[in-house]
Amino acid sequence: MLNFPIFPTTFGLFIFWKMGTGGENTAMNYFPLTTEQQEWKERVAEIAAREIGPRAATADRLAQYPRESLEALRAANLWALRTSREYGGLGADLVTTCLVVEEIAKKCPSTGMCYKMHLEATELVNRIPTPYQVERFVKPLARGEVFATIAGGETGGATGSDWRPNAMEVSTCRQVDGGFQLDHVRKSYVTSAGHATHYLLLSRLEGRPTQEMPDFLMVEREHIDWQVVGEWNGLGMRGNSSNPMVFTGVVPAEHRLGIGHEDEPVIPKYMMPLLILTYGAAYLGIASGAYELACQEATTRFPSGARRLDAPINQRRFAEMSAQIEAARALLHAAAAMADSGRARSPVPYVQAKVLCSEAAVRVTQDVMTIFGGTAFAARLPFERYFRDARAGLVMGMANDQAYEMIANMLFPKS
Ligand SMILES: Cc1cc2nc3c(=O)[nH]c(=O)nc-3n(C[C@H](O)[C@H](O)[C@H](O)COP(=O)(O)OP(=O)(O)OC[C@H]3O[C@@H](n4cnc5c(N)ncnc54)[C@H](O)[C@@H]3O)c2cc1C
To answer: What residue's CA is closest to ligand 1, atom 25?
Structure first.
């Protein structure tokens, strides 16, 4: 076995040079994938290139919901990615889930985010359904009849991204005959607003503990009064339709998720790994999508014969971008594998992966904007779209400021 550090510098460099002539500028996946995981990655990459990428620019320009792209995912049964095989789903693990979300987001971050929200919103019911919920939600999920999203934060004067359980400002719903009453409950940002068939609604429910995480209700679009407020005109993620929504009506008590698991920390245990890691995967997809496109474009020749890649400063930028992406991806997959095998002792690896992936997206898209200069600035290449989309990663889900505070608190618990 070669032991590089003991080679004289010149010879070591020669070996590295010999190893590095393969033009390996696309995803290498340092984390070892199983054959099945690799096949899913390739299958979804092919669907994304054929069905999703060609629609991404229009979705962004017109702030148009990526319905056809999501339909293509449904046709491949990917709406049931995390649904148990027992009920007809694909039963994918978290490493596969991260691969799938990254490949979609590479081609269209908005589609990737809408799809990620669907996975997040259906994770609890996929993992711990009651027998009623199996019939009502899980089997329809497997048949591609359910496309869900999260209706979480409300504008309540406090910070919308504060995820500490007792800091979450969400409506309290009265207990009424047969269920819980929603009285004009207004959610601030609901991705797939009005398009999704099901809304995982975060609420404080009368009669439930108040010092813990709020509860989740699965709300069906067909059985509630709902209204989408205004138009979604975001800086990035313009296809998301992440509008405010208002809900009124009674949600049956059987639609509360986690029934029968009252003694467990349901959300941290069953939902958090997927929730946080798929944010990471979506933002990693922005970084790797922009990077892969940049690798192609940087080798095309100007009339003079020169290429952008010929400039040493750009070579340095490509080297840095590749290192950032591979580091983020390696941590993301390692964290996902820890979750799959039950090895994580805390959510630290998930949150670290999320911040690293979203920061990779911001840095990589910033660099490609510089490398491609006026062409990028004038939107002749789609780098400015990736650049705008990447910004959401710093503030959404758990905002990175808050994520770092959470990591610090978990590393140094207050006594
Ligand atoms: C494109 C997009 C799609 C979204 N989709 C959905 C969705 O489908 N469902 C849904 O429920 N929500 C969604 N959201 C909302 C998102 O998850 C956040 O809740 C929201 O962006 C927070 O917005 P805010 O304006 O209230 O920010 P604020 O909470 O005011 O945060 C602003 C900044 O304050 C700081 N901050 C806030 N709290 C803390 C803290 N405790 N510690 C340290 N710093 C803090 C951070 O720097 C943060 O970046 C979406 C948001 C975006 C941008």
So the answer is: 160
